[in-house]
Amino acid sequence: MWGVVARMNWGKLSAAGCLACLTACGSEEPGAALATGGGAMITGISAQAPDSPSSSQSSTGGATSGLVAAYMRPSERDTGLDVGRPSPKDLEARSTLEGEATWVVSPDAASLAAGASACSFTRTYKGVEIHPGPWVCPECEVVYRAEATLVSGLSCYLQWFGRFPPSIELLGYGKGAWYRASHSPMFLQGTAQADTSSVRWNNQTQFETPFIATAEVNGTFVAGHELAWEDAPLVPPAKYACGWPKADPPAYTGDYSLAVGKQLPDGIFKDACGEAVRLHDLAGTYLLVEMAAVDCPACRSMSEYQEWWVGELASIGIKLRVVTLLAPSLAGRLDAAGTEVLKLWSSTFQLNDPVLGDRMWGLNVIGRAYPGSGYPSWVLASPALDVIEVHSGNGWLPVMDAVQGHAGLQRIEAESFVESSPGLFALGGGSYRKLGGVLTSDAWASYGELDFTGVTKVSARVTSQKNTGDIELRLDSATGPLVGTLHVPATGAWETYATVDTSLTGATGLHKLYLVWTRQTGPFGDIDYFLLSK
Fold first, then answer.
1. Which of 87, 238, 270, 481 measures 20 to 30 Å from 19, CA to CA?
2. How far is CA 353 from CA 167, 307, 343, in A?
3. Helices 397-406 and 306-315 meet at what angle, rounded to 10?
4. Are residues 328 and 471 in the same domain?
């Protein structure tokens, strides 16, 4: 059932190497334990080239700023990837931050008695204004990408977090509130008092790791400016060079919250052809948007088997398009994968659908709505872009169940029979089991209490090496009313499947279903699953 898929040169894709995955390659930093702080920031002026690590371009190949397309937010900016150096006249001023923040941690009495100690730690920050997609921090007036360094209190930090601190953080503020993130979505992290040259950041937060403590955080930021190259705009072309469909829907005016039944939030990303791709241009089929990282094994597994599962749905008339939003690594999830990485991922897994550089859409849109979501996580939308389901974890069966359920299909795994005649048994293992062992006419298997209300058709995924025959569908017993017949062809090999179907007549309400094998010319009719369709 499965083809051989080439293995990827992971060293070429990620300098970070393969990291241990949390929650199916999930977030390294629980939001509840992420403390906030304040600091004093110094002004500075410099001219940065696009490939400088301290400029708007990431040294990992992803980028973090650019002009946003007019259909999104004309006042916002968007990311440009792989752009050439503009002329000097395109230099623009951007806000900077530089300074430090200190956390003073006070454990409660029970934690002190259990061995915890009061302590403090200080982190310095050097940040530059970036212009990410509006989904990153809709409430922020400005967002900074900051290099962060722990300069004192390492033992304190390790006592409460159990790991070394991240070296890159996002900081932002708006409407009197401060927001912060490292490997998690940007969440509210206290208050911000801003004027033209400074921002005060204050907060009180609680740690539970498993000791309990209160952390007081205070500080002052002084804002400066630097000159940087203006980024190329991300504007979708009239026709995609990579061949993606282009629905050209109206400008997106919704918010960036994610919930079942709501419209899927829009986004704009770079593809392997170097073009800007708008998510809503892909409307018209079921759409699976998956957030993935190069060094996440579960993400590789999803892509490795993607085309097979897409083909399974296509065999029953359902079109699913998969959009992979790819980060260069779990440690680099604040960046978007560059075009060469996107090409390599697509070619390695032989994917026909878009692989796009994730500009923190997955991290913030999925992660904010469903805290604790790991890598991979996905959101499934209908052809009209209404959210059907959100899921975190590896495996395609939840995708199949969600799509088929929304399409009005009941899927029954053939090996899940309640009773059978002698000789029938489940073949294979794991997710790849099927029902087999049919050697004689009148073999049967039963399935209990299925709802046939409104069901008009039954289809089945079958295989038979060289013999043909029929599978009768009968109600309540092996000799009960005949309501349909599946004709099984010879498929040439037991690993080669065909989808067959039959109209259903005379069945309504709850009944046991019996499959009865008849008219065969020899051993035939292994079944993977069957579907009841309305």
1. 270
2. 34, 9, 12
3. 30
4. no
Contacts of 110 (CB under 8 A, 6+ apart): 212
Which of residues 384, 407, 430 is at a domain's end? Answer: 407
If asked whether residues 255 and 155 sit together in one domain, one would say no
455/400 same-domain check: no
Closest CA to 499 of 529, 473, 454, 520: 529
Q: Rounded to 5 degrees, what are φ and ψ at 402? A: -65, -45
> What's the CA gap between 320 and 351, in Å, rounded?
13
Cα distance between residue 212 and residue 33, in whole Å: 11
Indicate whether 2 belongs to any domain: no
Model's pTM, two decimal places? 0.73
**Cβ contacts of residue 88 below 8 Å, gap of 6+?**
none
Q: Closest by alpha carbon to 384, among 262, 283, 277?
A: 283
In Å, how far from its chain's centre is CA 223?
35
Q: How far is CA 119 from the centre of its chain?
A: 38
Contacts of 512 (CB under 8 A, 6+ apart): 418, 446, 447, 448, 449, 450, 475, 476, 477
Phi first, then psi, for residue 363 (nearest 5°) are -60, -40
pLDDT over 50 at 61, yes or no: no
In a domain, 403, yes or no: yes
CATH number for the domain harbouring residue 394: 3.40.30.10
CA–CA separation, 530 and 417 (whole Å): 12
CA distance 439 to 515: 14
Last residue of a domain, one of 229, 245, 266: 229
Instruction: Kindly list the distances between the CA atom of residue 250 and the CA atoms of 70, 183, 247, 276, in Å, as whole numbers in the listed order.
Output: 12, 33, 9, 17
Same domain, 341 and 387: yes
Q: DSSP letter at 57?
A: B
- Contacts (Cβ under 8 Å, ≥6 apart) of 303: 292, 324, 345, 349, 351
Contact partners, residue 315, CB within 8 Å, separation at least 6? 461, 497, 499
pLDDT tens for residues 388-416?
A: 999 999 999 899 989 988 998 888 888 88
Distance CA 423, CA 412 (A): 20
Query: Encoding tokens for residue 353?
Result: 């659908």
519: which residues sit within 8 A by CB, 6+ positions away? Answer: 441, 469, 470
Q: What is the pLDDT of residues 360-398, one digit of tens each?
A: 999 999 998 888 789 999 999 999 999 999 999 999 989
Closest CA to 277 of 247, 329, 309, 237: 237
- Residue 526: CB partners within 8 Å, gap ≥ 6? 427, 434, 435, 436, 438, 462, 463, 464, 494
Question: Residues 140-165: what's their mean pLDDT?
Answer: 94
Q: In Å, how far from its chain's centre is CA 28?
A: 16
> What is the rounded CA–CA span in Å between residue 496 and residue 245?
31
Residue ranges making up the domain that contains 142: 34-229
Task: Please state the rounded mean pLDDT for residues 474-489.
Answer: 95
* Section 240-269 average pLDDT: 95
